[in-house]
Design brief:
It comes from Phytohabitans rumicis. It is a multi-pass membrane protein. The chain is built from 13 helices and no strands.
């Protein structure tokens, strides 16, 4: 418990100062030059940067697009990853080993190496300049890591539990949904949080596939906001604060789920 507290303090000490500087910079009056040094309490303080960020950057529309993409991608990714991870526990050991090695190989492949074939595929299907390419990775669980995490979680469950389900004549699908999934809820919360953050902060895919400004997600809207006036830092930082709040809220909810599960166990 002591080392856990020390670790938590170390993490806070690393990540809290940049967040404080981000918020402090967003509260400076737009148009003022940057301060000569760190300034946690701007003088004068102003929320005008947030108003300009929303108006000039189109953050409302971009936020709606990001929410739509995340609302589809997160549950689909979790569902596919959970099904794939459970299916791995039902395969013969040798075949499971082959699939795990293939998944690790796919995990090590750089994402940029797939940009050209993916772009050609989506253009052939007529899906460029839509939100479909941003959601499509969820059909493959977003990352090869997530099915492997579910596989380890399902494999850690007692083998007698699966034997009892077979004696009760439960199908593999019902065993997965009614027995296995409720026992790995912390894993589901973790993968959902990671998928949300990865989807929410995805900049490269929207940059490649989306051209219509009305379809911009928040990372693209922030880029456009930064190019309007590169010296007006408070406006850009205000947009960055608004974009950062949802992932932080998701992590807080996921952490509460972890702590609740820990107390129950």
């Amino acid at each position: 418990m002591r080392w856990r507290s020390v670790g938590a303090v170390a993490v806070v000490a690393v990540f809290l100062p940049p967040l404080l500087m981000l918020v402090a910079g967003s509260l400076r009056r737009p148009g003022l030059p940057p301060p000569p040094g760190p300034q946690l309490l701007p003088d004068p303080m102003s929320a005008e940067g947030y108003t300009q960020a929303v108006d000039l950057g189109g953050l409302v529309r971009a936020g709606v697009n990001s929410v739509v993409v995340a609302a589809v991608a997160v549950p689909v990714s979790v569902l596919v990853a959970a099904l794939a991870g459970f299916a791995l526990t039902q395969l013969p050991r040798r075949l499971t080993a082959v699939v795990v090695v293939a998944s690790l190989g796919a995990l090590m492949a750089p994402a940029t190496a797939l940009l050209v074939p993916r772009f050609a595929l989506f253009r052939t299907l007529g899906l460029t300049d839509t939100l479909a390419p941003l959601v499509a990775p969820a059909l493959l669980a977003t990352s090869p890591l997530y099915p492997l995490v579910y596989y380890l979680a399902f494999r850690a469950l007692p083998a007698d539990l699966y034997d009892a389900c077979r004696l009760e004549d439960l199908s593999p699908l019902r065993t997965w949904w009614r027995v296995a999934m409720p026992l790995v809820r912390p894993v589901t919360a973790a993968i959902a949080a990671l998928t949300f953050v990865l989807t929410w902060s995805n900049f490269l895919d929207p940059l490649v596939y989306v051209y219509d400004r009305d379809l911009f997600t928040l990372p693209l809207a922030l880029r456009s906001l930064a190019t309007l006036d590169p010296t007006n830092f408070p406006v850009f930082l205000a947009g960055a604060v608004l974009t950062t709040v949802p992932p932080l809220a998701v992590f807080v909810v996921a952490q509460r789920r972890f702590l609740h599960q820990y107390r129950e166990s």
